[in-house]
Amino acid sequence: MASLSTTSLSFKASSIKSTRISQVLRKPSSFQSISFGRFQSSKSLRLQISCAAKPETVQKVSDIVKEQLALSADTALTAESKFSALGADSLDTVEIVMALEEKFNISVEEADAQNITTIQEAADLIEDLVQKKPAA
Amino acid sequence: MEEEKKFVGGWGKGNKMGERRPEDICWKERWVDVGSAVRLLDLSAMSQMQRSFSIDLPSLRLPSRRETHLWYILPDEVKSTSLLKRYSQLLSQTEKDRVDQMRGDELKKNALLARTLVRTTIARYQTNEAVDPRSLMFKKNMYGKPELDWQNCNVQPLHFNISHTDSLIACGVTVHVPVGIDVEDKERKIKHDVLTFAKRFYSADEVNCLATILDPEAQRKEFIKLWTLKEAYVKALGKGFSAAPFNTFTIQSNPGGYNLCKTSEITANPLEETKKCNGGWKFALLELADSHYAAVCTEDDQADEGAPMRVIVRKTIPFVEDQLILKEYFCN
């Protein structure tokens, strides 16, 4: 389903992203719609043209989630894993966000914090905030 | 026969309930004492299907205005696989899919019990005729809060809200006014330092209040109580968390009860920050099953402003038994 293609592509996208984007820019007519963020693009090319998070960020988020929710070490988490499906309630989500803020030295707006529902979303938000941080 | 849970004799204290013999497979005739009303089910006038739901899901008197009915299930008390199978037959396909998405048997079971609690409880308040819990339809308001789609099914316009933890699932029901509830395990450990957490998310007044509590355990407990009260408010408000960030309102603890104070920054000068503590919302904080804090929040009906909230708490196992736990008034 959507999740499978998204997962596999989001790991690859970061390395080949720049090539694909330049292709997109050269041939805008070949796409029915260009999608951004997390939505499915046109059928001819199922690619997320977005700044998907690096695999190591996803891994760090997974580790924090596992710790907060006291999941066993061998619980298989993917980028698409939903916090609610793992048994996280709102208090857990807030604690996860706090742990992510500490780990990555970022500050998350409360509205953004409450909108995070999957590991991928958390990782994307983190990278977005890290990128926006003023240079030290 | 079926591996039904063994009926533990006796019902809640103070509840006048007719004796039920454990060997009864279904309730043939029941005296139901709900509040002060005593009602005998008239089975002869009902159809076969209605009768089956009437027997297994005895109907309930609606909450009066200012009343919240709080129902809860303890998942550990529901072990019968045949009963759980019966529950799963009540769910819509979407609900079943969501249950299947949960990772692990315990989470799946709890998700099933949550939907069962909502459907069976709401079905019981339909006073006109017995309603099949499967027929209830739900929708979300424009902010994502689940609501009963009462216009599309012929049912009473009830408000409800659900909350769950690993070991307790609760559902609050009201008429006339929106309701929000939140439950938390009393022993829940916070991974972060409580004051650090509070400074990040709670209001300044709440942080100051927590800082005065020196015993770490007492401070943690107060933190949890505040969390449930704040969550209950946001859920009653029904506009999502961004409509009422936790640091924009204070739950004030008074000798009589709890009060909502909204921080309004009229000027840029923080010293002139004013707080409106005139309510508009009622709160109740209870302990359930000796293990959980439960907060209930309802909107104040203008006609009822200042009047206490009455809460009636019942523990239930749908299709099996109810137990009246308490009836209490909560002031502000």
Features:
heterodimer; A: 136 residues; mainly alpha; 5 helices; 54% helix; B: 332 residues; alpha+beta; 3-stranded antiparallel sheet; 15 strands; disordered N terminus
Please, could you describe this protein's structure?
The complex is a heterodimer of chains A (about 140) and B (about 325). With about 140 residues, chain A is mainly alpha-helical. Chain A has five helices and no strands. Chain A has helices at about 1-25, 55-70, 90-105, 110-115, 120-130. The termini of chain A are far apart. Chain B is of the alpha+beta class and about 325 residues long. Chain B contains seven helices and 15 strands. The longest helix of chain B is centred in the last third of the chain and has 22 residues, at about 215-235. The interface between A and B is medium-sized, with 18 and 24 residues.
TL;DR?
The complex is a heterodimer of chains A (136) and B (332). By secondary structure, chain A is mainly α.
Element layout with pairings:
The complex is a heterodimer of chains A (136) and B (332).
Chain A: H1 2-26, H2 55-68, H3 90-104, H4 110-115, H5 119-132
Chain B: E1 31-34, E2 37-40, H1 48-56, E3 67-73, H2 81-88, H3 93-101, H4 105-124, E4 138-140, E5 146-148, E6 158-164, E7 169-175, E8 179-185, H5 194-201, H6 204-211, H7 216-237, E9 249-253, E10 258-264, E11 274-276, E12 281-288, E13 292-299, E14 309-317, E15 321-330
Parallel strand pairs in B: 3-14
Antiparallel strand pairs in B: 1-2, 3-7, 4-5, 6-7, 8-13, 9-10, 10-11, 12-13, 14-15
Figure out the total of helices of chain A: 5
Radius of gyration of chain A: 16 Å
Greatest interface (CB-CB under 8 A), with counts per chain: A-B, 18 and 24 residues
Give the overall average pLDDT of chain A.
Answer: 71
Major sheet: arrangement of strands of chain B: 6-7-3-14-15
Distance between the termini of chain B: 51 Å
- Looking at how many chains there are and whether they match, the oligomeric state comes to heterodimer
List segments of chain A where confidence is low: pLDDT < 50 over at least 5 consecutive residues: 1-49
Largest sheet of chain B: 5 strands, mixed
Q: Name the shape of chain A in a single word.
A: globular
Radius of gyration of chain B: 21 Å
Span between termini of chain A:
42 Å
Q: Give me the strand/helix succession of chain A.
A: HHHHH
Note the beta-strand portion of chain B: 25-35%
The ordered H/E elements of chain B are: EEHEHHHEEEEEHHHEEEEEEE
What composes the largest sheet of chain A? none
Helical/strand content category of chain B: alpha+beta
Could you give the count of β-strands of chain B? 15
- How many extended strands of chain A? 0
Domain 4'-phosphopantetheinyl transferase N-terminal (chain B): 85-170
EC number (chain B): 2.7.8.7
Domain 4'-phosphopantetheinyl transferase (chain B): 178-262
Organism (chain B): Brassica carinata (Ethiopian mustard)
